[in-house]
Every structure is written in C-alpha cells, then in structure tokens.
C-alpha cells in the first residue's frame, strides 16, 4: 500500500513533534545542566614556612578577614580555645625537635590552637590532626605555652601567621590579626 506524499509528510511532521515532546531520558543520557561555580571560601588557605639549622617548620592555615567585625573579645571570645584561623584546623609540621616557649615538641605533625584573653595568650600544641578547626580534644594536648601579646602598628585586615627574627636555630612565631600581634620563641633542638 502506498501512502500519498501528503500523508507521509504529515506522519513525519507528527513524529517529529512527538519526538520533540518526549522526555530526554527516552533519547539517551541527559546532558547535565551547567554546574554553578562554587564560591571561593571567605578565608583563603595560607602557609608559613621557616628553615632552621636543625628543623624545617611549616604551618598550614586558613586566613580569616576582619570585615568590619570586632575580633578579639567578639568573634573570638576571650577565655575560649580558638582554632587560630578559620575552616580546617591549623597544622604545624616540623622535621626536627623543637622547643616552643618552654614546651618540648618532637618532630611530627600537630594542630595549633590558641587561648586569647584580655591579659595574654597561650599557644596550644595538640597531637590530634586532620580534624575541622572547631573539633578540639583537650586530652590530646601536648602542652600549652604563654605567648607575648602586643599591638600591631596598623590593623591587620587578613590574619597572618609568620616567622620573624630567624637566626640559626631560633625564630619567633607570630599570629597577627586586627590589632593584635601574639608571638612565641621557637628553638630547634638536637
């Protein structure tokens, strides 16, 4: 049986309309919608490194910004353990044994927390690693040391951890943010 050309044309057009109306899954794998670009974190990853005569030290942290907020005594309450940065826990790695303040720290990887107060700071060296910054287990503390807390010459918008006054086997670890510069001496030991 032969269909007239007009009927064939109508059937083809109808099939095309039906094909267009069928869901994508009937025709095979659906094309994924374009991904929404992820927003970059507000606190960007940062790193501080120093090479001493008997140890190489690196600190990985996320650097928060002030963004108009009251930091110490506000966002970071006095008398409470702070992750010393933002996001994941701040990590210290040392290739050699250290004395941080009066605390002996064997070679290895640690988490740094701090305890700011209106009268001074303590640096906490913790043996637990790999956790989110707000996960703190006091039972894992290697120890706590006093830090000298002073003022910065100008406000520091984005937190900085750095090493200063490095000579031979000694350096100073500084945490600077807002108007605070907290520091402690570090010595590589044999």
- The poorly predicted ranges are 7-22
* Biggest sheet strand line-up: 1-2-3-6-7-8-9-4-5
**What is the count of structural domains?**
1
Radius of gyration: 29 Å
Q: Biggest sheet: strands, sense, closure? A: 9 strands, antiparallel
Task: Give the amount of beta strand, in percent.
Answer: over 45%
Number of helices: 2
SSE pattern, N- to C-terminal: HHEEEEEEEEE
Structural class: mainly beta
N→C terminal distance = 99 Å
**How many extended strands?**
9
Mean pLDDT: 86
Shape descriptor reads: globular
Percent of residues in helical segments?
10-25%
Brief account:
With 190 residues, the chain is mainly beta.
Description:
The protein has about 190 residues and is mainly beta. It has one domain. Helices cover about 10% and strands about 45% of the residues. It is built from 2 helices and 9 strands, in the order ααβββββββββ. The protein has helices at about 5-20, 25; strands spanning about 45-50, 55-65, 90-95, 100, 105, 110-115, 120-125, 140-165, 170-190. A 9-stranded antiparallel sheet has the order 1-2-3-6-7-8-9-4-5, with no helix packed on it. It is globular.
Descriptive labels:
190 residues, mainly beta, 9-stranded antiparallel beta sheet, 2 helices, 9 strands, 46% strand, globular
Task: Set out the fold topology.
Elements: H1 5-21, H2 24-27, E1 44-51, E2 56-63, E3 90-94, E4 98-100, E5 103-105, E6 108-116, E7 121-126, E8 141-167, E9 170-188
Antiparallel strand pairs: 1-2, 2-3, 3-6, 4-5, 4-9, 6-7, 7-8, 8-9
């Amino acid at each position: 049986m032969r269909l007239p050309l007009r009927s064939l044309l109508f059937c083809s057009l109808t099939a095309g309309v039906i094909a267009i109306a069928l869901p994508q899954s009937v025709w095979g794998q659906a094309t994924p919608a374009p991904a929404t670009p992820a927003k970059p974190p507000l606190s960007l990853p940062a790193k501080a490194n120093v090479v001493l005569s008997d140890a190489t030290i690196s600190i990985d942290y996320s650097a928060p910004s002030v963004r108009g907020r009251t930091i110490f005594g506000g966002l970071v309450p006095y008398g409470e353990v702070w992750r010393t940065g933002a996001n994941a826990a701040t990590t210290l790695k040392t290739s050699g044994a250290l004395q941080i303040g009066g605390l002996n720290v064997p070679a290895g990887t640690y988490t740094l927390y701090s305890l700011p107060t209106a009268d001074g700071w303590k640096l906490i060296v913790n043996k637990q690693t790999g956790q989110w910054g707000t996960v703190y287990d006091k039972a894992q503390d290697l120890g706590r040391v006093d830090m000298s807390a002073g003022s910065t010459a100008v406000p520091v918008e984005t937190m900085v951890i750095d090493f200063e006054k490095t000579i031979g086997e000694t350096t100073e670890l500084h945490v600077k943010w807002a108007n605070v510069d907290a520091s402690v001496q570090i010595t590589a030991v044999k």
